[in-house]
């Protein structure tokens, strides 16, 4: 009887737990979660990224337990998205990069604690792989693939690289699709920096995002994609296709990603939409500001359902946990997507405020918003209230909203009102709203009016949201990137690698070959005597150009040095740069400018070039910051020797005149040349380049477990040897 009673109690508890949890059902293989206890038509999720749990930095996991667990318990999101770089996979000196099982055990333990503290169901957590989680992993499921052993996705048997879940509330569907575009063969860093989607993955991604497009009920669907890599660090597929084209086709609300970290800036956001006219060639390689400058086709006069849909989406990179201790809360309110970022570096938060309407006109407004305004697609009720989600550990006493007008030159309050909580049976999250005359805020300027919400709880603790501009017209406020932000998110690095590579090589060959041709064709035109004698007859520009050409003509006259530079450059084009172990415990292989030469896993002897364009992190710095400066310095040394020889011969050929007294300026000039200060300065520059080269070589030796004497003597020792030889060769006249 006692055993039967225990069994009955277990069954009853299981039934109660199943009834209490939001039901997850499968409709034709599509996972759907019915949201309960939330305001009607509103869902919200939490995003974390770039955790980088490390054995060398235990404080990262400690702070994660300390802050994230209680915050998730307070926010109670519908989903928790962890977008890559779960562990660090780096040695203490940051040079050796491979998987460390201790870090994965720490990750598993920390996530278990977070689930226990927050009391959230495990199934709402989605953790994707980042490039750090692939360091040195030869293939999925192979040795060192600890993600398949310790991650939440693996434990819940979520197979495949594309995962999707639909959250329903208030008659709307909210589709979230995550995808893993890490390398198929996980190279060790630093040549593991880019996302590498495949054609197969893009097909799966497109199918997942369009799974509700053929429904007969025509329920509105808001689509959100999430992954690790921003598009600026995502390579094209083997057939030249881009993730961007899939996102534009599906007209996402937003793509959530990580990878870049906050150290590059806080405006790592980018807006994409299909251009009316064909973009120029250069626009395939970079974008100068956050918003594309293409003209958007107007739909003002066509508000029918058959009107052409604007193909667009936002890309929102969030800050990292590694140093910035960031977490993002993203909400969808009647199709409008907004977010707020939380910084835990100053401690835990007892109040979190997320305004959901109107939207921030800088980072959240879409081109289709202007059509929504003109045609009222979402219905007048959407515009009739200012709304905000408020999460608090304690009871809320008051919530107020202020709207400021910036036209006078200072912020002047033009709307100040208490917000009221929406009456419902909510058990998670509180929606506050206040009616307003939204037509009074129509304005051609997207940044004239600014919104701020203030909340006070029963303990007297007060929190104020960040000021954000808004535009009920659906206009977008322009924001310019800093140069660092442009560098990491405005440039399409995967597309720029090959043009940059061949431009650098073309410049190097030009500097070596063109002066040689000039020396043969023009003979005595580019000599020190001709430049010195005819200098007064030339313009400044011609003198500078002539002097520049003369430097490299003099280098061409030092035949051994010139030959060695030419042979080395040809070597870099056609032969291996280095040998090493790009995969943990793998056989020795080699790298060229076309990538690492590896055998594809489980495919016999098929050879692939892995790590394109990731090898640019090795190739371009060596060409641009080592080889090019070396050529310029050696050319300057050759020219300095020629100039010093001419000066020496001109002085020694003159007869001494006791009656002649030199001026002070002439004496200083003599001392300058006799001391060969230009040569000493060039030798100092040689040391700077050699230091840069030494750091480069040291990083490669540590990263790929190589012996420089045996595996890569040409790359490592050619530049120092050539500099030493040139210094010796140009020391005498």
Please render the helix and strand layout as text.
Blueprint (H helix, E strand, L loop, with lengths): L1 H19 L3 E4 L2 E5 L7 E7 L10 H17 L3 E5 L17 H18 L6 E4 L18 H4 L1 H4 L6 E8 L2 E8 L19 H11 L11 E6 L16 H8 L3 E4 L11 E5 L38 E6 L8 E8 L2 E8 L7 E7 L10 H8 L4 H4 L1 E8 L3 E10 L6 E7 L1 E2 L8 E6 L13 E9 L4 E3 L3 E3 L12 H8 L2 H29 L6 H6 L6 H18 L1 H16 L3 E3 L8 E4 L2 E5 L7 E4 L5 H37 L11 H12 L1 H28 L3 H4 L1 H17 L4
Parallel strand pairs: 2-6, 3-4, 4-5, 7-8, 8-9, 9-11
Antiparallel strand pairs: 1-2, 3-12, 6-7, 10-11, 12-13, 14-15, 15-19, 16-17, 16-20, 18-19, 20-21, 20-22, 23-24, 24-25, 25-26
Helix pairs in contact: 2-3, 6-7, 11-13, 11-14, 11-15, 13-15, 14-19, 15-17, 15-19, 17-19
Keywords: Membrane, Signal, Transmembrane, Transmembrane helix
Protein name: Calcineurin-like phosphoesterase domain-containing protein
InterPro entries: Calcineurin-like_PHP, Ig_TMM62, Metallo-depent_PP-like, TMEM62_C
Short description:
The protein is α+β, with helices and mostly antiparallel strands. The chain is built from 19 helices and 26 strands.
What does this 3D model show about the protein?
The chain is of the alpha+beta class and 733 residues long. The strands form five sheets. Strands 1-2-6-7-8-9-11-10 form an eight-stranded mixed sheet, with helices on one face. The protein has a five-stranded mixed sheet with strand order 5-4-3-12-13, with helices on one face. Strands 16, 17, 20, 21 and 22 form a five-stranded antiparallel sheet that branches. The longest helix has 37 residues, at 616-652. The N and C termini lie far apart (108 Å). 40% of the residues are buried. Residues 1-23 and 294-301 have low confidence and may be disordered. InterPro entries: Calcineurin-like_PHP, Ig_TMM62, Metallo-depent_PP-like, TMEM62_C. Residues 1-26 form the signal peptide. Residues 45-262 form the Calcineurin-like phosphoesterase domain. This is Calcineurin-like phosphoesterase domain-containing protein. The chain crosses the membrane at residues 499-522, 543-571, 615-635, 677-694, 709-728.
């Amino acid at each position: 009887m006692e055993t039967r009673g225990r069994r009955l109690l277990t069954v009853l508890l299981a039934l109660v737990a199943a009834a209490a949890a939001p039901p997850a059902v499968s409709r034709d293989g599509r996972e759907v979660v019915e949201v309960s206890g939330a305001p009607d038509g509103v869902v919200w999720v939490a995003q974390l990224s770039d955790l980088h749990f490390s054995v060398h930095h235990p404080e990262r996991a400690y702070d994660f337990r300390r802050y994230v667990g209680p915050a998730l318990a307070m926010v109670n999101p519908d989903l928790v998205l962890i977008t890559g770089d779960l562990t660090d996979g780096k040695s203490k000196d940051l040079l050796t990069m491979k998987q460390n099982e201790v870090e994965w055990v720490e990750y598993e333990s920390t996530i278990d604690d977070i689930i226990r503290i927050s009391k959230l169901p495990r199934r709402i957590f989605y953790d994707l792989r980042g490039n750090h989680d692939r360091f040195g992993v030869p293939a999925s499921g192979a040795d060192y693939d600890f993600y398949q052993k310790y991650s939440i996705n693996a434990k819940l048997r979520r197979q495949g690289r594309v995962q999707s879940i639909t959250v329903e509330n208030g008659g709307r569907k909210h589709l979230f699709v995550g995808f893993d575009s890490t390398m198929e063969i996980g190279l060790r860093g630093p040549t593991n920096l880019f996302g590498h989607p495949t054609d197969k993955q893009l097909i799966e991604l497109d199918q997942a995002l369009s799974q509700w497009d053929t429904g007969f009920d025509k329920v509105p669907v808001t689509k959100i994609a999430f992954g690790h890599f921003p598009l600026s660090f995502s390579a094209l597929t083997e057939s030249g296709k881009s993730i961007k084209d899939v996102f534009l086709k599906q007209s996402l609300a937003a793509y959530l990603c990580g990878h870049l970290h906050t150290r590059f800036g806080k405006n790592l956001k980018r807006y994409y939409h299909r251009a009316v006219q064909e973009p120029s060639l250069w626009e395939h390689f970079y974008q100068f500001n956050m918003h594309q400058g293409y003209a958007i086709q107007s739909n003002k006069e066509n508000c029918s359902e058959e009107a052409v849909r604007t193909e667009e989406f936002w890309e929102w990179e969030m800050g990292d946990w590694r140093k910035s201790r960031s977490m993002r809360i993203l909400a969808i309110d009647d199709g409008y997507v907004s977010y707020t970022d939380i910084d835990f570096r100053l401690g835990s938060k007892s109040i979190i405020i997320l305004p959901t309407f109107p939207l921030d006109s800088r980072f959240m407004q879409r081109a289709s918003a202007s059509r929504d305004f003109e045609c009222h697609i979402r219905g007048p009720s959407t515009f009739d209230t200012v709304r905000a989600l408020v999460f608090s550990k304690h009871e809320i006493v008051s919530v107020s909203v202020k709207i400021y007008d910036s036209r006078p030159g200072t912020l002047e309050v033009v709307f100040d009102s208490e917000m009221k909580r929406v009456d419902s049976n909510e058990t998670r999250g509180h929606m506050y709203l206040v009616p307003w005359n939204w037509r009074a805020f129509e304005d051609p300027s997207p940044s004239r009016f600014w919104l701020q919400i203030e909340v006070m709880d029963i303990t007297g603790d007060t929190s104020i949201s960040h000021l954000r501009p808004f535009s009920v017209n659906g206009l977008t406020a322009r924001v310019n990137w800093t140069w660092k932000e442009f560098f990491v998110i405005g440039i399409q690095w995967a597309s720029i690698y090959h043009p940059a590579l061949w431009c650098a090589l073309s410049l190097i060959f030009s500097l070596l070959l063109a002066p040689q041709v000039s020396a043969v064709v023009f003979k005595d035109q580019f000599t020190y005597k001709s430049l010195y004698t005819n200098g007064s007859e030339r313009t400044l520009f011609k003198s500078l150009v002539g002097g520049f050409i003369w430097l490299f003509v003099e280098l061409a006259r030092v035949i051994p040095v010139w030959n060695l530079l030419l042979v080395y450059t040809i070597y870099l084009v056609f032969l291996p740069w280095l040998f090493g172990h790009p995969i943990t415990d793998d056989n020795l292989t080699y790298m060229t400018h076309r990538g690492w030469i590896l055998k594809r896993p489980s495919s016999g002897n098929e050879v692939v070039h892995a790590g394109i364009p990731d090898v640019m992190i090795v190739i371009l710095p060596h060409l641009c910051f080592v080889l090019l400066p070396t050529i310029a310095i050696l050319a300057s040394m050759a020219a300095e020797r020629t100039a010093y020889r001419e000066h020496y011969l001109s002085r020694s050929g003159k007869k001494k005149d006791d009656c002649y007294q030199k001026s002070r300026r002439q004496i200083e000039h003599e001392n300058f040349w006799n001391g060969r200060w230009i040569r000493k300065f060039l030798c100092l520059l040689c040391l700077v380049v050699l230091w840069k080269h030494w750091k480069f070589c040291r990083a490669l030796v540590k990263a790929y477990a190589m012996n420089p004497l045996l595996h890569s003597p040409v790359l490592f020792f050619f530049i120092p040897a050539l500099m030493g030889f040139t210094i010796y060769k140009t020391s005498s006249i």
